Amino acid sequence: MLGCGGGSLMRYEQQIRRTFDVVSTSGNEFLCKCPWHIDGNKPNLYANGKNGKFLCQSCGKRGHMQAITGMLPQASAQDLRDRMAALTAPEAPKPRVYNEAWLLRYAHVHPGWYERGFSEQVMDDFNLGYDPTKDVLTIPVRNTEGELLGVITRRLDDLKPKYMYPKGFPIGRYLFGAWKLRSGERNVVALVEGTVDAIACWDARIPAMAMMGSRLTKDQATVLQVLGIRTVVIFTDNDVAGREAIPQVHDALRGRGIAVRVAVYRPYWRAKDPAELNEQRRRKAFHSALPWHRWKEIVC
């Protein structure tokens, strides 16, 4: 494809392996994952170990290994270091996947969900339930493909922590609600802290995902990128931790081709998070979110 002649010494093999994520080889040619675009994690870039040329058949990026240093996209160097570390790091165990019938044990009505003002539709969509054996509300959690990974429980007493996740569940690898967004289907989504905040946004017809915390991890940022999200509206809690999370989320998305806007609470709303706002105010905060540079001007 790139003019390879088998059997001769490959001058650029080591550099190709250091620079790209090599998936397979054939003679002088290396099939790699392209660092310039996201394509469902598929390898589309061909590099030739003999003549040093490379070409991505998906995005069209081409060049020569001698000039690769100035061509790599922003954050690529860190990505490559992470990839190299991953070669020697033990693979993280995959969470258990449950059959949908397993949820029937939690198919109980509880006033706790109605008190939040949720519609019947959203309670059905998210399979919100109740565990009478432990006296806790239940929220099913799924991976990006929609497979059931267990339930998050919410205590009804005053003890903490209020929310408990399935044992061994890797929170930082998933975004709650991501399964409701097919790749490329939505351009703008709200990014919130808690699962209940995400559900409340969906009830107000706002596509949303929850970080399940106040920090956006690299894996979660990659989920947004793979889903083809063009703009993220940061809609964190209305408290000190929520406000401190805003620049961290922005930094985590830097260099990924995702625009950032910030939802702003009006002082008279007196709400601590998106779920405490009524539907009208949730939509107002989302649709009137400030561009990142404008928010920074106001804050600074």
Question: Any overview of this molecule?
Answer:
26% of the residues lie in helices and 21% in strands. It has 300 residues and is of the alpha+beta class. It has a 5-stranded antiparallel beta sheet, covered by helices on one side. Strands 11-10-12-13-14 form a 5-stranded mixed beta sheet. Strand 6 (129-131) and strand 7 (136-142) form a beta hairpin. The protein is globular, with a radius of gyration of 23 Å.
Instruction: Give the rounded overall mean pLDDT.
Output: 86
Strand neighbour order, sheet with most strands: 1-2-3-4-5
- The global form is globular
The radius of gyration over CA amounts to 23 Å
**So how many helices?**
9
SSE series: HEEEEEHHHEEEEEHEHEHEHEH
The low-confidence parts are 3-8, 74-78, 83-89
Q: Which characteristics define this entry?
A:
300 residues; alpha+beta; five-stranded antiparallel β-sheet; five-stranded mixed β-sheet; 14 strands; disordered N terminus
Quick synopsis:
By secondary structure, the protein is of the alpha+beta class.
Strand-helix topology:
Elements: H1 13-19, E1 21-26, E2 29-33, E3 43-48, E4 53-56, E5 62-64, H2 76-88, H3 111-114, H4 120-125, E6 129-131, E7 136-142, E8 148-155, E9 163-164, E10 188-192, H5 195-203, E11 208-210, H6 218-226, E12 231-234, H7 240-252, E13 259-262, H8 279-287, E14 290-291, H9 292-299
Parallel strand pairs: 10-11, 10-12, 12-13
Antiparallel strand pairs: 1-2, 2-3, 3-4, 4-5, 6-7, 7-8, 8-9, 13-14
